[in-house]
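Q: Entry one of two.
A:
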Amino acid sequence: MVAETLRRLSPEKRRESIARLTAEQRHVLEKHLMATPQRDAKVHKEFQNRLDRGDQSLQRAERNGRTRGQKCSLKVIKSKLKAVERPRPKEPKHRGLYPKGLSQKSIRGLSYYYASVGCESTIFHCKPVRSRAVALGHLATLQRLKSLCVSGSGSFEQRLVAAVETLRKDSPFSIEQIKVFVRSATQHWLGRDLHTPSWQLNQLDEVLHARRLLQVARGHVIVGGCGLLYQCSIAEAAELWVRIREAYLEVCASVPGCDVQKRALTLDRAEAAFAQHRNRMQTMVERRQRRHAEKEERKVQATQRHLQREMIRGQKAANQVERRDHRALRSLEKLLQRW
């Protein structure tokens, strides 16, 4: 009885109770424990029933011919076979005729080719020509200019100046035939990129000044399409467009012969034409943000409820252990008094 009562106690209470025993009582208790065989752990009936139900479902699946995992693996294999059997889309026939950077346009029914290459928001392009071979030569020159800008050291402005000087010395191609303009990502407001007026390549001071103005207007936001509203709010996006518009019109005013009023009217028309799509995107973003906020709030509430349940469960368990130890100690004291 004493050994059974000690088993019901918590480890701390058990050690305190054993310390109260005399040497003779401990000796007798050790002999009793050594003579008593250890009982096998009993499996809980509910857990055993679950195991039985699992075995029955497994046997039923084996009788049907396949287990659930085998059925899933067969589905995956069939889908892969279908993907292999599916014919690949044919490549366009004109893919080899127009490499990246070479474009074609029609002017008065005649086909013209022109080359253009971009590098860090600056676009280099040549005038359209009738000969495709000449346009390919322009493209090779522009690609070499881009490689010099990328491979150099220092800031972009320093690399661009050094690349232009290198190209002027080495290339037989005339630098004056290359024009450059600055691109700004404005798909969110206009549905397309915004391009400044073009300058000749020897007018690098004007090009770099326009690039600096647009970069200062943009700030830390470097995208202008669908990802814009993930980096700033709707109000910040509206303020950003006002700054970009002012910087763009300032750049246009610095170019001789550029009609600033006509450019401003073109921006207004493009902004009005794209307003419906922009409003739809803003509504989608607002809905997504509202759902995300509601989800976070529900997660916080669920965490709080879980912590409260864990606290109550811990208090109940502590009270239960305390009551059990109290009853066991009372029983142990009575047994020791009779021993």
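Q: Entry two of two.
A:
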Amino acid sequence: MPTYQIHIESQKAKSRKVSVTLLQALLSVIIEGSKGAIRMRAEGRSAVRGAPPEWIKTATQFAMELQENRLHIESPTLYDTVPDLFQPSEGFSELNSERTSFDYLIDSLTTALTDEKVEPLYDKALLEVFQGFRHVLNQGAEKIHFFNGRELEITPDSVATFKERLADIPSPCPVKVVGKMDTIRSYDQTFRLITAKSDRIIKGIAKHFAPKEVQALLNQSVLVSGIAHFTTGGKTLRVEAKRISIAQEGEEASWGDLPIPHFTQSADDTQLSTDAQTNDIANQWS
């Protein structure tokens, strides 16, 4: 079973003890962050109202040993914990069965802290979980070092970066997009849409639809109306579908490309944008 090390660099350099409150805060970020990271890969979102799927709970059950200021965490591979997830019928191609939920946590933390132009593996909810490191630092930790083949360091500057990333994510907004319904997964009703104009892939969620209803649209040119969520760079992260129908003549010309986010500059602008979005939704789907 893969083992990972986390070194807690204390503000009291000679202390061999770790505060229970500090440890509780750290484990909370690790557990909730791991849940969010693997769900982010599988569904394009790290959290949703209600309890997470049972497979996510199972995949984030860790064993731990504390030696002075160093945590040793055992994390089983996804295949060891949830082998049924990787049957051909389920199609969880976004996840590697030989990796662990802890691996995906490190991936998400790394992309949130890097300045490189990489595809972000986080959303607002996951960044809010990562901001929980401030509670760890407030309890006496100076730095948190993760060792898993590559070193990752969490400092007060890291927490500030998470906050900046959070502010950079555009607000969700109502969109329409036309494309080919390429795949749909029965397990969680996530689908993959290939845009009509640019052949770009969009991940979507059709949670309000009966499985048979969406399966009938497979390989068809469809119009998806819903709420788009975006990355810090303005790329479409996912579309939560409110309506899916066969695309009609002329709709491809108007809605055949990737959705574009509405960027706002102030709290007042954000409220105006939100009000406008609410009116748009009412007009489109009333």
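A: Comment on entry two: The chain is about 35% helix and 25% strand. The first helix runs from residue 20 to 43.
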